Amino acid sequence: NQYDHALKTFRNAFTQTDIDGDGVADRLVPCGIVWMQGEADAYQSQAAADEYRANIERLMGLLRAALRVDDLPVVIGKITDSGMADDGSVMDYIGTVQQAQQDFVGDDPCAAYVTVTDDLGYLDDAWHYDTDGFIRMGTAFAEAMIELEEECAPDVH
To answer: Per CATH, is 31-149 categorized as 2.60.120.200?
Structure first.
C-alpha cells in the first residue's frame, strides 16, 4: 500500500547521513507536506467522496506522527475537473471532495488551500495538467508553504 511505501521512503531518507555527497553529515528536517490528490475519490462514488474528509485528516495525522512534527505544514491543492467527459464532468462527486478539502484546511491552522488549479489547462487525458499548469501549481504550492512555515514549521536552524 502507498502509506507503507511512504513510511519506507521516510525511513530510507532519515538513514542517509551525507545527503548532498560533500563528505559532511547532514540533518534531514521535514518542513511540510504538499498534497494534490482526491480525484479518484471524486470520480469513484459518493461514498468514497463522503469519506474523503475523515481519510485526509487521518492520513495527515499519520504522516505528521511518522515525521514527529505535530504542526507540520500541509498544503492541499484543490482538485478540479477538466470537463472533458461527454456530460461535461469527469468527476461527479468533486463538490464533496472540494468541500472536504476546504473543511480540513479550515480546521487546521497549519494547513493551506491552493486554488490556482481553477485556472490551469489539461492534457488530452482529462486528468493531468499541462506543463505550464504544473509549473504554476508548483509555484503556488511553494508560496503557500513559505507562508505556513513562518507559523508552523519546525526550526531548521
So the answer is: no
- AA identity, residue 126: A
Domain ranges of the chain: 1-30, 31-149
Residue 113 DSSP symbol: E
Q: How far apart are the first and last CA of the chain?
A: 34
Residue 102 has pLDDT above 80, yes or no: yes
pLDDT value of residue 147: 94
Strands in the chain per DSSP E: 33-35, 74-77, 111-114
Q: How confident is the model at residue 155 (pLDDT cuts 50, 70, 90)?
A: low
CB 33 within 8 A of CB 72: yes
Q: How far apart are CA 37 and CA 143, in angstroms?
A: 19
* C-alpha–C-alpha distance, residues 62 and 27, integer Å: 22
